[in-house]
Structures are given as structure tokens and as C-alpha cells.
Amino acid sequence: MIKKSAALFAEAQNYIPGGVNSPVRAFKAVGGNPIFIEKAKGSYLYDVDGNKYIELINSWGPMILGHAFPEVEKKVRKTLKNSFSFGAPTAMEVEMAKLITEMVPSVEKVRMVNSGTEATMSAVRLARGYTGRDKIIKFEGCYHGHGDSFLIAAGSGAITMGEPDSPGVTKGTAQDTLLAPYNDLTAVKKLVKANKGKVAALILEPVAGNMGCVLPKDGYLQGLRELCTQEGIVLIFDEVMTGFRLAPGGAQELFGVTPDLTTLGKIIGGGMPVGAYGGKKEIMDFVSPVGPVYQAGTLSGNPIAMAAGFAMLTHIQENPKIYKQLNEIGEEIVHGIQRINTKLSVNYSMNHIGSMYSLFFTDKKVTDLETAKTTNTALFGKYFQAMLKRGIYLAPSQFESLFLSTALKSKHIKSILSAHKKSIIEIM
Ligand SMILES: *Cc1c(COP(=O)(O)O)cnc(C)c1O
């Protein structure tokens, strides 16, 4: 029964464009109406009709320890008593910045913002100010939030909605964004050569999660690092998704490649709206008020948001074994799905790393946007609905990664695999 959700969605559409505050939530790509959520705890989501779902998105990444994690909740409750915002510095911001620089060593200085989008927009402005160059290179299928410069072959909601390029982005802005295919070092080298001395920054997801989960090929990130060093280009790893998810120090720790700037979001706020950008001191000191590049925020470093993020990151730093645990959870689910798919002769392709995975309905190996698009999205829509009916909450789009949490126990994994098997039988 989803009566209350359906009624709320009907009402919402009168007052909110499409009834939602972020497009992919609308379920347009998978059919049906979105589920309105009332509460969540651990690995369960509860909707307004009283249905219970096992969580495989976890708020698109942040809830890596499961919902309402006690240490985070406690810290937020304690902080709430002192009012919610001052617009003046607090001790917690210093502790937070120190903690981030410890966990992500390439980040020598960091500036807090309120979302991943703000982080990437600010990082690119900084790279332009620092290098005195205008152009940036982004990769097809990578999503960096909804800043104008990035809405060109952006992944995630943009491909899901079939709107890779958004009206409202001026030609002038679009001209300064150069596009390269993901995982193709030769193509990006050519692009840099053709624009010699003009490229300020190269920005990418070191593991892509917004065209579905796509891993970098061996040597790809190293190759980009060398290219940027040679050409004086600022290398930006957008770790809004992978930061604190793949390792305490993000994908850069896992792959051993050091970017010049890093953007963070999602987990860093423990579920509150937080983003951050940071990197080399020399570059970060170009930011106002020490440097000339302007960037500001009334609510940046908000005490409640910092409390949630700080409690989350502290737990992660003190318990690095969670990454082994997340990897085991990921392997159990992924191997289970693979076994079932083989038995049932499903045409599929699976990408997996740690607590991120995507099941594509294609027999092509997915390594970039072009191969990701070979997936059968109509079949994915049916699969999504079949899983939802069985109490499993997936991302409502094929072009997203799933995000696992430490709250997933053996019994949840059993339910996921059993639902998968029944769903596949139903839709094939
Ligand atoms: C989610 C995401 C963003 C945007 O973050 P918002 O907080 O939604 O603005 C940017 N980059 C990547 C890689 C993301 O996954």
C-alpha cells in the first residue's frame, strides 16, 4: 500500500516543480510514484504508509554507518542546545578542519561550504584564479553538481532525465568546459595539447558513481596526474561521493594518486548539508580573505552540520576496520547477485568497489558513458519496481551507484538476494 505517498505526491506537484526538491527523486526513470519517507533507523527506511525497506542508497551516500547512528545523534543533540547558527567562527570548525587534513593528507587547508555543488564550483573558480586560465576539462558521465560549468554531458539526474545539457547555461560558459571520454588517457592528452596553456583544471570522479559505478582503468589516474603536473593544470578529484567511502582518505588513498584539490560532500556532513574543498596550501591561500579569489557562505561551517560531520568522521577515523567490513558486505551482495544472474542466464554487467556497486542490464563491460548507455533502462525500471515491492530500496535510476552501510547484516543480505532472485524471475 502506498496510498499516503501517492496523495502527498499529488499535492506536492501543486507547490513544488515535479513534486520533488531534486529531480531523480521523482521516479521518472523507473515509473510509479516516489515513496515519501517518514523515518529511518540503521538499515531500514520507513515510509508514510508504514512500509519498511532495506536501504541500498543511504541518502545517496552520506549514511555510511546506517541511519540515525547513535554517536552522530548524540553529538547533534548536545550541540543544538547552544543555538543553531552564529555566522562567526566556532571551535568545532577548527577541529573539523584539522580532522579532515589528518584523514585526507593532500588536503593541507580546507574551506567548508554547504553542498557538493558549492564545493566543485568554488574549486574550479579557485583553479582559474590560481592559474590565470579559463578552460576546464570534465569527463563524459561524471557529475559535479549543478553548477553551470558542469552541466555538460553530466551524469546522474541529467542522463536519467535525458537532459545532458541544460538550457540556461550560456554559450560562453559552455565554451570553457572541454569534454573528454572517461578512462581514455590518449583522448585527454590530445585535448590538452590542442588547448595548450589554456586549461586551468581537470576535474573528475576518481571512481565514477554518476553514470552508474565505473572504475578507473589501471594507470588512468596516475596518467592524469602526470599530465597535469607537466602542463601546470590543477588536478581536482571530486570525492563528494568517494571521500570517506572507499577509504578514510577516499579514492586518492586507495589508488595512491595525489590531486592538487579535492572536493568533499555527502559523508562529510553525516547527513547534514555540508561540502568542502581543500588541497595544497599554496593554492588554498588564493582564497579570500588571504587571497583574491572570492568565496563565502552565511551558513558555512554551521555548528549543527559540523557536529554531525565531526561525529561521523571521528567514528570512521577511530574504526578503520569498517572498510574491510563494508567490502565484505559488498562482496557478499555482489557475488550473490552474480551467482543468481548466471543461473538465470541474465545479460548483465556488474561494477563493484568496496561499498559501491552497479548492476547494468547489458553484456558490455561498462567503462565509460558510452558503454553505460548500452544498458536496458526499461528493464532496470521493472527491476527497480520488483525490488521495491519486495522491500528493497534501490536508487531510482540505472545511472547511479548503490551505497552500502555498515548497518547491513547477514539477514538483510539474505533478504536482498532473495528479492533479487524473485525480481529477476518476475521481469525476465
Ligand atoms: C552528489 C555529488 C555532487 C553534488 O553534491 P550536492 O551536495 O548534491 O550538491 C558533486 N559531485 C559528485 C561526485 C557527487 O556525487
What does this structure look like?
The chain is of the alpha/beta class and 428 residues long. It folds into two domains: 3-68 and 321-427, Aspartate Aminotransferase, domain 1 (Alpha-Beta Complex), CATH 3.90.1150.10; 70-318, Type I PLP-dependent aspartate aminotransferase-like (Major domain) (Aspartate Aminotransferase, domain 2, 3-Layer(aba) Sandwich). 39% of the residues lie in helices and 14% in strands. The chain contains 15 helices and 14 strands. The protein has helices at 3-15, 70-80, 91-103, 116-131, 157-160, 171-175, 185-194, 220-231, 250-255, 281-284, 303-318, 322-343, 369-372, 377-389, 410-427, and strands at 37-41, 44-47, 52-55, 109-113, 135-139, 177-180, 199-204, 234-238, 261-264, 275-279, 349-353, 356-360, 392-393, 402-403. The strands form three sheets. Strands 4-10-9-8-7-5-6 form a seven-stranded mixed β-sheet, sandwiched between helices. α14 packs across α15 (410-427). The longest helix is centred in the last third of the chain and has 22 residues, at 322-343. The model has no long low-confidence stretch (mean pLDDT 96). Pyridoxal-5'-phosphate binds at residues 115-117, 120, 143-145, 205, 209-210, 238, 240-241, 265, 275. Residues 115-117, 120, 143-145, 205, 209-210, 238, 240-241, 265, 275 line the site of pyridoxal-5'-phosphate (PLP).
